[in-house]
Amino acid sequence: MARYGVGKLHDHELLAIVLGSGIQGTNVVQLAQKIIAKVKKIGIEKLRLEDLSDIKGLGPVKAGQVFAALEFGRRQYASHRKTCSNAAKTFVRRGKSIS
Fold first, then answer.
1. Structural domain range at position 10
2. Contact between residue 57 and residue 66 where contact means Cβ atoms under 8 Å apart
């Protein structure tokens, strides 16, 4: 990560860094892949903390940490979309007022 940057990492690798460790019989990358599969199946908007807690190897504390990280990312994405949308509307309005 330090050498190439986070942009070069896959989603499961980024999540593995957040998780830190797996459990006996499931390494951290496999655990991250299970979480991502669950999120894709349910959808991030419908995901509940209980959905993550159901994953073997993800206790309540770690499930809460992952859930909080996903929520943070979702909020940042929504905020960015809103900012981009507002900027586009301003641009269009200014363009129309010039004509």
1. 6-98
2. no
Residue 40 included in any domain: yes
pLDDT (mean) for 42-62: 93
Domain count, the chain: 1
For every residue of the chain, which 3-state class applies, written as one string?
CCCCCHHHCCHHHHHHHHHCCCECCECHHHHHHHHHHHHHHHCCCCCCHHHHHCCCCCCHHHHHHHHHHHHHHHHHHHHHHHHHHHHHHHHHHHHHHHC
User: pLDDT confidence of 36, banded at 50, 70, 90?
Assistant: very high
